[in-house]
Structures are given as C-alpha cells and as structure tokens.
Amino acid sequence: MAQKIIVLGAGLVGSAIVSDLSKNGYEVTSADLDREALGRLEGTPGIETVCSDFTDPENLSSLLNGKELVIGAAPGALGYRLMKQVIGEGKHMVDISFCPEEYLDLDALAREQGVTVVADMGVAPGMCNAILGYHDQQMRVKSYKCIVGGLPERRTWPLEYKSSWSPIDCIEEYTRPARLVQQGKIVTCPALSDAALVEFEEVGTLEEWNSDGLRSLLTTMPHIPDMVEKTLRYPGTIQYISALRELGYFSYDEIEVDGKKIRPIDLTARLLFPLWKLEKGEAEFTIMRVTICGEQQGRERTVQYDLFDRYDPLSDTLSMARTTGYTCAGVADMLLKGMITERGVLAPEMVGRQERNFEYLLQYLRDRNVVYRVTVQ
C-alpha cells in the first residue's frame, strides 16, 4: 500500500512538491483554503485535494489522520504553530515555511514523540545548509558564504522583481536585521548593508547585500569563524527598497487613516503583490553560489557550488518552485524510505552530514534537472 503524505499549502511551491511526490508513487493530499490554488492539482492521478482551513487545530488534526508524513508549505507566520501541532500529533514532517521563531526549540518535544522533523528544507535556507553540513565533515571550515536570489528574466520598471512567495515574507528580507558571523562572533547588521556587485556568466551583473539567512547555522555551526548569507537582486533594488523602508511603508505599527487603523506593511503588501506576481508562463530563474573555504589534509581548499535554474515551460513549473520544492520532496522521500532515522527536529545541515544522504539528494535533484556545478581549488 502506498504511503500517505499531506502537504499543507497549495501555493506554487507546495503544488510542485505535491506533483513530484505523486510521481514517486505516494498518495498525496493537498490541503488549502484557496480553491483556485487547489484547482491546479484537481484531477491528477495520485493526488487528492481538500479545501480546508488547516490553521484550525481541529481541522488540522482531522487532516493528519492516517498520514505517514506532513509537509509544511504555508506562509512563515503559520509555520511554528503548525509544526508544534504536527509534532504533538506524532507525525513526521518536512517544512519549508521558514518561520521566524526558533524551531530547534521543538527538538525535545519531537524526541519525546519519537518523530523526525526536518525544517527549513528548501533551497536557501535548505540545500545551502546541507552543502555546508557535508563539507563540515570533510574539512576544517574557516568560512562560508551563500549568495542567492530568484528573479524574473524580464526586467520590468519600476521594481524589476517578481516573486512566488508571500509578499510579507519577501518584505521581511528587506527589514529584518542580518545576523552574520565574523571572527567567531555573531554580528548584527542592517538588512541591505554591505552591498556589492557580482558578475554571473548566465545573467550579467547582480547586486548582493546582507540578509538574515544563516538561521540554524548560528546554533549548529558555532566553530566556523566566518559565515554570511546575501540576497541577490538586479542593481538598483536597494535604492528604492531603502526609500520605502525609511518612509515607513514596511512598518507594523498601526496608523489612523480617515478613522480607520491600518498597518503600513499590510497596505504595502497589497499594493506590491500585483506588481510582484508572476504572469502565467513568465520566465524566471534561481541563482545561488555557495563558497566554502577551509583546510583538508593539511592543504587550503575552496569548494564552490553554483546553481542556475530556469522556469520549466514543459511542466509550467517556476524555477523557485523547482529548486525549493524538489529539495523538500527529496528529503521527504529519504525520510519515508528510512534513510533518515534520527529523531527530533533537524536543521538541513544535519541531513547533509551523512554522505549517503547528501549524494542521494544531489542525484534526486539532478534527475529533475536541478544541477549544482561544483568546482574545487
């Protein structure tokens, strides 16, 4: 009998996860309150769709009944609460919600329940962490840098940016202070700081700047003296985003307008989302470079992983959905096959530590034409 999976969230990434796992022979249920999102999956063999508000604890408990694995693909604001209930229900989970809370705090509860939860298992955070986790076992790592971004191929004025993510989650990248590690100490810098231009053969010049993407690495990799993650955008993005931020458009503090109280962030998200929304069939790409420097067998060693992935017109799947969703699906596949046996809440770098699992995940992605090019110096 096929193992049963439920995916919470039928957005562009959640739908890619559902479609991929159903092709692997699993019985997959997609749950969402958005009937239009579920409509993309209806009628596909091996996929069941359920229109339900899984933020309601009773509804969620009912949805989890009989499932071997839960995948969280909901907005970040919902992630921690959903993860906590899933653990309490005694279910294994792989999550890509990127919740703002410290999800490793749920480790003791997961161990008590005898379940495994792999959190932040997308592309970044996610695959970049797994890469570091693997090489941390092979060498004495001295520095780690990840630069990553998802962008439309066509640059449209005035924003030159579009997204498959929740607009508020995207705005968080521009406002949340960035935590870096410099000379063994955690340093907090403003978002958008330390901007620099970077050249890529595939797309030309992009702009990098500090973002708060290290997340679990700050806890699990305290021995690495220098670590940073930076976001990539088209040049000029910082200028207009900084202006919006300084003018208060990203504020969560309520203001009164004509007798009504509103949060500026909600208005901004509402205005930006139509401009950020990708049109059907619109081409976009994901680009990431992970650079790890250190010492191996007495020699200095630099390992670089480069990813450049484009929208797939044949399956009508966005690159960000492919690179994030297939990474999550690959780890779900490993978990259901018994390749991941450790119980508790695992950060993605913990999955990468096992060479067999790391190689399996790389091959899983290659089979879906998500290819990491590796160079060693």
Overview of this protein structure:
With 377 residues, this protein is an alpha/beta fold. It folds into 2 domains: 4-122 and 321-370, Rossmann fold (3-Layer(aba) Sandwich), CATH 3.40.50.720; 127-310, Dihydrodipicolinate Reductase, domain 2, CATH 3.30.360. It is built from 13 helices and 18 strands. The chain has helices at residues 12-23, 35-39, 57-64, 76-88, 107-113, 127-138, 167-175, 217-220, 237-246, 264-276, 319-336, 348-352, 355-366, and strands at 4-8, 27-32, 47-51, 69-72, 92-95, 116-118, 140-152, 178-182, 185-189, 196-200, 204-210, 226-233, 255-257, 260-262, 284-296, 299-310, 344-346, 372-376. The strands form 4 sheets. The chain has a 7-stranded parallel beta sheet with strand order 3-2-1-4-5-6-17, sandwiched between helices. The chain has a 7-stranded mixed beta sheet with strand order 10-11-12-7-15-16-18, covered by helices on one side. The protein has a two-stranded antiparallel ribbon with strand order 8-9. Helix 1 (12-23) crosses helix 11.
